[in-house]
Design brief:
This protein is mostly helical and 133 residues long. The protein is 70% helix and 0% strand. The radius of gyration is 14 Å and the shape is globular.
Amino acid sequence: MDNSISRFKAREQGFILVFEKIFHPEPIEDIIANAEESRDMVVDDYALTLVNGVYKNVENIDSVIESHLKKGWTVKRISKTSLAVLRLAVYEMKYVDDVPESVAINEAVELAKKYTVDESKFINGVLGAVAKD
């Protein structure tokens, strides 16, 4: 029997872990272990790939995001929720070959609709600009 979850659910798990990491300085492995222990979360392999990939490349990912923001904006000015969504999507767009950019953008917009206060247009705009480069 296949225990895997949908790619969207895996992205959602990844998003939650990336979001938690923004607030906690400990290594991502500790955050994942804590999530598995305290919430009985079984972290999907794809979610692990996303989270580990984001944090191996976070400086580059943040510079990609920042280069597509309006003048005067930095990643520090973005809400933590939107930053987590953007980091995940930019990682998929730049580092995951089997995910079309349009899918990464659409999934990010869906996460934004679910977890942010109407920041989906902002996220769509930034990711659309990233896709054009």
